[in-house]
Amino acid sequence: MLTTRRLFTAILFLAVFVMSAREIQDPDFWWHLRTGQFILETQTIPHSDIYSFTRAGAPWIAHEWLSEVFIYALYSLAGFPALILIFSAIITLAFAFVYARCEGKPYSAAFVLLFAALATAPTWGVRPQMISLLLTSVFLFVLDTSVIASEPFDFAQGKLRERSNLHFPTWGLLLRFAPRNDAFGIWLLVPLTVLWVNLHSGYALGIVVIAVYWFGELVRVIASPERAKQSPNFNLGIASSQESLLAMTNTSSLVTLSIILFVTIAVVPLNPNGAMMYTYPFDTLTSRAMQTYIQEWFSPDFHLNEFQPFAFLLLATFASFAVARRRAAPTELFLLAGFAYAALRSARNIPLFAIIAAPILAANVWEWITTRGWNKVFASRAETSRLLAAINWLILILILGVSVARVFAVISNQTLVERAKFPAAAVDFIAQNKLNAPLYNAYGWGGYLIWRRYPDARVFIDGRADVYGDKFIEEFLRTYRGEGDWRARLDKYDVKLILVEPDAPLLTPLALDAQWKKIYADENAVIYQKNK
Asked: Nearest CA to 52 among 444, 489, 446?
C-alpha cells in the first residue's frame, strides 16, 4: 500500500532524477566518447597522445578508460537518451546511498538531501566524475554500516551511542546474514577499489575516506581506555560484558580498517597504467595551469547563484552543532573539516562535501527535532486507508507524468544544445570543404573536434590538460589572447586554420593581419585561413 511516507520518498528521488537529467554540455564528453570507441574498435588502450598534432606521442594516462568504454557502449546501444538516463540514474543512486545514512527519514532527511543535491547540481552531467561520486557514496555507506567507527563515543556515559538508523533495502538483505558489527561487507571495498581505479582517478578518494575512518577509529581506541579506567570494575578486573565488548570491538575495527587500507592501496596497480596510478591523482592536483585557468578548479564564487545552496549547506552543517546535543564522532569531524576545506579550495570538490555533510546535518536536525518532541508528529504510524492510498497513487502518477515529460524534453533538446554550445555548423563547413590543414582551436572545442574529425584531422589542444602540460597551456593562452609574438607561436606548429569563438581576443589582431582572411562566421564560431 502506498503510504504517505513512501509517496514522499518516491517524490524525493523522482525530483533528484529529474534535476540530474540534463543535456550533454561538458566539453570533455566528446573525447571520452571517441576514446571509448577507439578502445572497443582497436582492442587497445592508448598510452600516448593520438588526438593532437602538437603533442603527438606524448605520454597519456588514460585513467578513465573503463568509463569511456561504458559511455561509448551506452551511446552505441541507444544514443544520447541512454547516456542521459543512465547517468541520471547514477547520480540518483549516489544520493540514495546518502539518504540511507540520514536520520529523520523521510521528511526532515528529504529536505537536507535536496539541499545537498542542489549544492552539487552545477557539476552534474554525463561525466566519469559522476561514477566517482557514486563510488564515494558507496564507500561511505559501507564504512558506516560495517565499521563501528561511524558511531560517536559518548564520553559522558562511557559507552557507544545507538547506531544511526541506516537503511537500504538491498544492502539490508546482505547484512541480514552477518553480525551487525563484525565489519562484514567492508571487504567489498577491495574489489570496488580495483573497479574504481580503472574507471576514474578519483579512486584516491576511496582510500582517503578509509584512511580518515582508520584515524577516527584510532582516536576512539586511544580515548576509550581512559574512560574505562574510571569504571569501578576496571581495577577489580571484573569489567562488564558491555565494557569488554566495547574494548574488543574498538580494537577489532581498527585492525580490520588497517588491513583494508593496506589491501586497497596494494591493489591500485591492477589497471592498464600500473603503478603510475599511485601518483596520477596528485599530479593533477599540483598542475599550475589547471588551477589557474580551468574554471572548475577555482574556489566557489559565492556571488554566483549556483553556489548559494553550497553556502547554505556549509553554514547550516557547522551551525547545527550549536543546537544539537548529539556529539559527533571523530571520523565525522575529520571528514567534515577536510572536505569543507577541499570544497572551498575548488568547486569540483563540492559534491564530495555535500555527500559527507548531508547525513551529519540530518542527524543534528533530527536530534534537535526529537529533543522538542516534534518527532512524534513525523513518526505517526496510522494505518493508511484505501482512499488515502488511492489519492497517493494519483499524486504519484501525476508527478511521474510531469517528470517523464521533463526528461523527454531534455533528451529532445540535445541536438539543439549541441549546435548552440559547440561549433557544429563550423565543423560541417570544415568537413565539406576538406580543410584538413593544421588548425588552432579554442580550448573547450578540442574534444568536440576529436569526436567529429578524428582520425581525418588532429587538434591543437583539448581538455586533457595533463597531456599538454603547464608550459604548453600557458603558451596556448598567450596566443589566444593575441599577446606577444602570437604569429611565431602559430608558425611553430605550421597552423593554417583558426577556429575560435566570435569574442576571442585573438580575432582583433587577426582582422588586421593581411596574412589571414576570414572564411566563415556564425553566432558560435569564426574560422580564419592563412593565405597561401
From this structure: 446
Distance CA 244, CA 483 (A): 72
Domain boundaries, the chain: 4-386, 422-530
AA identity, residue 527: I
| Pairing mode of beta strands 497-500, 526-530 | antiparallel
Residue 87 grid cell: 547517468
d(CA 227, CA 273): 48
Q: How many CA atoms lie within 13 A of 417 on its CB side?
A: 13
pLDDT in the model for residue 237: 38
Cα dist. 266→21, 271, 285, 530 in Å?
37, 12, 22, 53
Pick the closest to residue 152 from 239, 254, 223 (CA basis). 223
The answer to whether 460 and 53 have CB atoms below 8 angstroms apart is yes
DSSP H helical ranges for 151-202:
169-175, 189-199
For residue 104 the three cell numbers come to 529523520
Q: Are 95 and 120 in contact (CB under 8 A)?
A: no
CA 147/CA 235 separation, integer angstroms: 29
What would the grid cell of residue 503 be?
A: 569574442
pTM metric for this prediction:
0.88
Q: What is the pLDDT of residues 447-506, one digit of tens each?
A: 999 999 999 999 999 999 999 998 999 999 999 999 999 999 999 999 999 999 999 999
The three cell numbers locating residue 463: 581538455
Q: Identify the bridge partners of residue 159 per DSSP, sorted by sequence position.
A: 154
* 39-50 per-position pLDDT tens digit: 999 999 999 999
What separation in angstroms does the CA of 34 have from each of 127, 147, 278, 392, 521? 14, 41, 26, 45, 27
Grid look-up 539518504 returns 99
- Decide: residue 323, CB within 10 A, 0-12 exposed, 13-18 middle, 19+ buried: exposed
**Phi and psi angles of residue 130, each rounded to the nearest 5 degrees, phi first:** -70, -30
For the record, the C-alpha cell of 121 comes out as 547540481
* Strand pairing report for 516-521 and 153-154: unpaired
Neighbours of 107 (CB within 10 A): 18
376's CB contacts (< 8 A; 6+ apart) are: none
